[in-house]
Amino acid sequence: MKDYTDFLQKLRTGGHFGYPVAHRALYSTEEREPENSLPAVEACIRQGILFIEIDLQETRDGYLILSHDQSLKRMTGLEGDICDLTLAEIKKARLYLGSGDSQTATDFQVPELAELLRAFKDRALFNIDKGWEYREKLHFILRRENAFHQAIVKSNAEIDEAAAFLRRADAKFLYMHKIFNKDMAALPEMKEKLAPRLWELSFFDDREQLIEPETINYLKDSAGVWINALNVSRNNGHNDELSLRKPDKGWGFLLDLKPNYIQTDYAEKYLVHYRRRLML
Questions:
Q1: Residue among 156, 150, 154 nearest 126 (CA)
Q2: pLDDT band (50, 70, 90) for residue 35
């Protein structure tokens, strides 16, 4: 994989095929770095993965920090909800390795969003999964940090809600919209009013119209296509768990849909199987 400039150019032109997205910034499920942490992002970049999913939560004093859960108990042992804690209180905690299962403490702190953007300026793109509810503050931070090109914000909000915000947003703001088979009739309206940079497809059955080649080609006329391999995703069982046992039935099936991006908890193992096919 090449540098970030090349990555962004391919994002804009649809030049990626099956590019792996590291879920919660973890390149590997081995507990090498804490999820949603600066060292985890650095490890992804070191391995050539420049598209990284993160989650946001807001502190009591209004800072956006990286955390999947509403509490830091799983990842640090700290009691209390993030919304009831100040940034200073949170910075006293230390992250556990990996997903926190081992409760092995590290020297690493919970990062603030602005801290992340500054640390990895022009080095990676962050998919902000849990962040739509903070969109106004997020937009302000991205503008202040001159970082619109470093974050793409996802939602499955109603068309009017998303369109109203996007009309006010900076033209450089990157947006990603999640769709289901039930949204087929609304796709032309979504394309016109939302003009997302990426579509996230979620399906329940292999026969759904949403994942037929004609639909995917229609979506790729104006944006890229993202599919999840996460075990918590629908996608009719074509997930990481199946992929570890039968790669061609899991990741292979998803690749046959010709998405631009696949999000996985096992980017390292995914690349072992498919690096040559993906020409990375």
A1: 150
A2: very high
pLDDT at 2 over 90: no
CA–CA dist 230, 227 (Å, integer): 9
What DSSP designation does 230 have?
Answer: -
Helix (H) or strand (E) holding 116: helix 113-119
For residues 90-118, average pLDDT: 97
Distance of CA 14 to the CA centre of its chain: 17
Listing DSSP states for 253-278 in one string gives: HHHHT--SEEEES-HHHHHHHHHHHH
**The residue type at 34:** P
Is 141's pLDDT higher than 90?
A: yes
Tell me what the pLDDT averaged over the chain comes to. 96
Residue 266, Cα to own-chain centre: how many angstroms? 14
Which amino acid is residue 27, in one-letter code? Y
pTM: 0.96
Contact 16, 261 (CB under 8 A): yes
Residue 39 CB neighbour total at 10 angstroms:
16
At residue 32, the pLDDT reads 84
Neighbours of 102 (CB within 10 A): 10
DSSP reduced 3-state for 21: strand
Element (H, E) at 4: helix 4-13
Pair of tokens at residue 141: 């931070």
